[in-house]
Amino acid sequence: MHRVSVVLKSNGHREIPSYSSFTSFSKNKHEAPVASHSYWEKPRYLVLGICILFSVFALCFFILPASMEFTVGNSEPGHQGLLRKNLRGLQTEETTNALSEEIGEESKNKEWRLKPDHFTLFNTSSLLTTPFNPLNLTNGIRIYVYDLPAKFNEDWLADERCSNHLFAAEVAIHKVLMTSPIRTLDPCEADFFFIPVYVSCKFTPKTGFPWLGQARKFMEAAVNHVSTRMEFWNRSGGRDHIFVASHDYGACFHTLETEAIAHGIPEFMRKSLILQTFGVQDFHPCQAAEHIQIPPYVSPSVAASYIKDPPERQKRNIFAFFRGKMEINPKNVSGLVYSRGVRTVLYKKFSHNRRFLLKRHRTDNYQLEMLRSTFCLCPVGWAPWSPRIVEAVVHGCVPVIIADNISLPYSHAIDWTGISLSVREHDVPKLDKILLNVAATNLSTIQHNLWKEENRRALLFTDPLVKGDATWHVFDRLSTKLERSFIKH
To answer: TM spans, by residue (predicted)?
Structure first.
């Protein structure tokens, strides 16, 4: 109908002068209508008749068929109804070529606006293929998350420990990524591919600790699943794929270092990107693959339940604090002594020192003791890293890290030398003198740096994600490794 009205307007106003425009040719105003009528009567009727015939022709052959198509094919009349029907692939051949082109163009634009969710990361305003950077990372990235069978991840969440223990970063990262604006549902657009496998959620009945005996086979089964159903693993050999290995020795999947080194990283994972808590400054077989060091998981909600006031307002009446496993007579296990003997020295040397509060067993509310402490001891265990480092920072207690050659997470963003102390393992016998010296000199400076909110935020996997938290730093580090992406930027 719109096209017909344009024709009538064009012929009626441009070709035929209006009735009133010729009254000026008459000698007086009383004669004007008669003269005008007699002079223009036949041509005007002829033209009007032609216009009426043309209108009937257009009505019968163009407009009525389209209207019937709208009514039969869609309950919505008009142009919008045809657009929706076109998006469902039901457009009929009776539509004219001109109308088809117009509606096809609108359908294309409408389809772009109706992307299934906000994970599509293209600039719709300019229609360029340059990706957005919604999280303000170093570079914009897109990550595809494999939809694995529930036996690889979701089923394990029936045990609430799965999402709360020190290895639970594998759950936290997956959960945040599922609703992140950098996730894409189109694998062809992805820079990286995330394989969500929870290998730390099987707990031993005796100790309650995660059992990693099935980890290698579990990971391999997940890789077999994705590689036989989609081409992206085989395309890159796993180079652009991401695993989480938040265990004692990362992707070596063993608690004891000698055993971990003997087994090494599984062959199928060695080309991939591994997010792991383990890290040392020198070469180690368990960090031979490309990796990003992440902090161990500490529950943000649990931490928030204890922290009622800013760290600087806490009354800290405990000088040095440690609560955890300390063996008086450590056993030799596969040629190794737990904590390399450090915790034994700590207990024997300082358990009766009034400045030290050392307890060999944890309690449910040990966080309250951290809030009261000035220095929190973080000695090596089976592995060099410890969740106590994160807990100490979160609770405003200066971490005293006793683990030679340890590498700390997110050193690009956290000035660890400014917020913590590092003590060599062989210097443990004189730890009291070292701490007293710090307390007398630069303790206030360390605490001032430590109590900055961005330090606590960087070590916690918050949900929902906020800029600068632990998961955000994972994404930011990934964005610096776009050379591994199959897509050329």
So the answer is: 45-64
pLDDT in tens, 175-227: 999 999 999 999 999 999 999 999 999 998 888 889 999 999 999 999 999 99
Domain boundaries, the chain: 2-113, 129-297+474-484, 300-460
* Cα dihedral across residues 251, 201, 143, 469: positive or negative: negative
Angle at 355 between CA 350 and CA 361, to 5 degrees: 60
Query: Could you give the CA distance from residue 442 to residue 313 in angstroms, rounded to a whole number?
Result: 19
**Architecture of domain 300-460 in this structure:** 3-Layer(aba) Sandwich (3.40)
Q: What would the two tokens of residue 142 be? A: 């897109």
DSSP string, 336-365: EEGGGGHHHHHHHHHTT-TTEEEESS--TT
Residue 421 has a CB neighbour count (10 Å cut-off) of 20
Report whether 333 contacts 206 (CB < 8 A).
Answer: no
* C-alpha distances in Å from residue 17, one per residue of 3, 13, 228, 278, 282: 22, 7, 76, 89, 93
**Cα–Cα distance for residue pair 169/175, rounded to 1 Å:** 10
d(Cα 284, Cα 230) in Å, to the nearest integer? 33
* CA distance linking residue 140 with residue 134, whole number of Å: 8
> CB under 8 Å to 174, separation ≥6 — which residues?
145, 153, 194, 196, 244
Which amino acid, 91? Q
Nearest in space to 476 (alpha carbons), one of 485, 467, 484: 467
